[in-house]
Structures are given as structure tokens and as C-alpha cells.
Amino acid sequence: MDRSPSTTRETYDRIAAHFAKTREYAWPEVESFVDDAPTGGRGLDLGCGNCRHAELLAAHCDSVVGLDLSRGLLETGRERATDHGFAVDLVQGDASSLPLQDGSVDLAVYVATLHHLPTREARRASLDELARILSPDGLALVSAWSTAHDSFDRDEPFDTEVDWTLPGGVTVPRFYHIYSPPEFDADLAASDLRIQASEVSSGNCYATVTGSKQ
Questions:
Q1: 169: region left, alpha or beta (phi > 0 left; psi from -120 to 50 alpha)
Q2: Is 123 exposed, middle or buried, given 0-12, 13-18 or 19+ CB atoms closer than 10 A?
Q3: Is the pLDDT score of 2 beyond 80?
Q4: Which of 98, 115, 160, 209 could lock 193 by a disulfide, CB 3.0 to 4.6 Å apart?
Q5: Residue 17 burial by CB count (10 A; 0-12/13-18/19+): exposed, middle or buried?
Q6: From CA 27, how far away is CA 23, in angstroms rounded?
Q7: pLDDT band (50, 70, 90) for residue 180
Q8: What's the whole-number mean pLDDT along residues 118-123?
Q9: Quick one: CA torsion of 66, 196, 185, 150, rounded to 10 degrees?
Q10: CA triple 162-164-165, angle to 5 deg
Q11: Domain residues of the chain, as ranges?
Q12: pTM of the full predicted structure?
């Protein structure tokens, strides 16, 4: 199982166009989070893919950054922004080493991405990076696929590969770390983030967090 960031990037560059077509609508949990958050400031869609959640942020924030490791996915986000008429600044980058300034983000959405980072060290580093770039009053929603999903019959966290099937039947393996809810909470608690709320919904772990434990 190849866990290098370059392999993850190449995988999503390869499936980007087809993948984006299956990700048209925002998740209801993200809609609720954004709707309940203060308006204005700078938003961040971390692991933005085709920018379906950046679109929500664009209607709520003064400006929005969409960041993804895959240039192919960023291109689908650019197309969506043009077609749907919203503004987003697109940045290619690694979630474990964000090219953003300290305290520069007021509202962040980090969903369906953490579980693709290849090691626990990288996942924890990404949570610390999220804490670093959040403003003193900043909020973020973090999610990851969990053992609570109907697809799994296990209680302990584990690594796996999930195939993406392209038109024509070609399959492309994608790395996932499947969190248990206790491990998800433990990694957040060990990071520089502060947990405001945590839950499991639709087979995913979710946490609303701030960037300071003070």
C-alpha cells in the first residue's frame, strides 16, 4: 500500500473529472455548520475537491480559499466557480504543511480529507496546521470516515484501500485511514485544536473545533 503524498496526488489527478461529477451537492452537516457560523471574514475549504463546500463558504464569507493536493481537482473547482458564479482563490498544497499565514482563516471546512493522509504523524500535523491558521475566534468543521459506517464491521481503526471505478471499468485504489470515534477524538485532543462538539453522522466522525486551547 503506497502511502506517499505524490501517489495520492496522482490518484486524484487521474480520477478528478469523473470524481467531481459525483460530488455535486454539499453535505447537510457542512450546510448546518456554515449556516450557524458568524458571517464575514476569510473562509477555507481544506481538501476542496470540486469546491462544492467552497461555494457555501463564498456565500457566507468575505473571501474564500480552496486548497487541494490535486491540480486536477482544483481545475474542477475552477470550472464549478465559473459555472456557478462564485469567487474562490485556489491553492495547491499539502494539508500537513499549509501555505497559509498564522491566524489568517476565520471559518474552515476540513471534510473527507483527513482520512486520506498516509500516516498518523501527517494527520496529526494537519490538525496542528489547522489550529495554526485559524484566527483567535476562528471555527472549523473536521470530518473523517469512521468504523461506525455501515460498510465496516470493525470497531478498531484500520488502514485500507477503496477502489474508484472509472468509466470503462478501470479501478484506481485510494488510501483511507478508517477512524474509530475514540481515536478521532483522541487525535483532536492531542492536537493544538480545542473541541467544541463531536458527533458521528452518516458514518463519519465530525468535530467543531477552534484554534486555541487557551
A1: left
A2: buried
A3: no
A4: 209
A5: middle
A6: 10
A7: very high
A8: 95
A9: -70
A10: 135
A11: 5-210
A12: 0.94
**CATH superfamily of this structure's domain 5-210:** Vaccinia Virus protein VP39 (3.40.50.150)
Mean pLDDT of the 6-19 span? 90
Confidence of residue 3 (pLDDT cuts 50, 70, 90): low
pLDDT digits (tens, 9 = 90+) for 57-90: 999 999 999 999 999 999 999 999 999 999 999 9
3-state class of 137 per DSSP?
strand
> Which residue type does 73 have?
L
In the 8-state DSSP scheme, what is residue 153? -
CB 19 within 8 A of CB 164: yes
CA atoms of 196 and 189, how far apart (whole Å): 11
Q: Which helix (H) or strand (E) holds 212?
A: none
The contacts found for 115-121 with CB under 8 angstroms, 24 or more apart, are 115/144, 115/145, 115/176, 115/177, 115/178, 115/179, 116/8, 116/47, 116/174, 116/175, 116/176, 116/177, 117/177, 118/3, 118/4, 118/5, 118/8, 118/175, 119/3, 120/177, 120/187
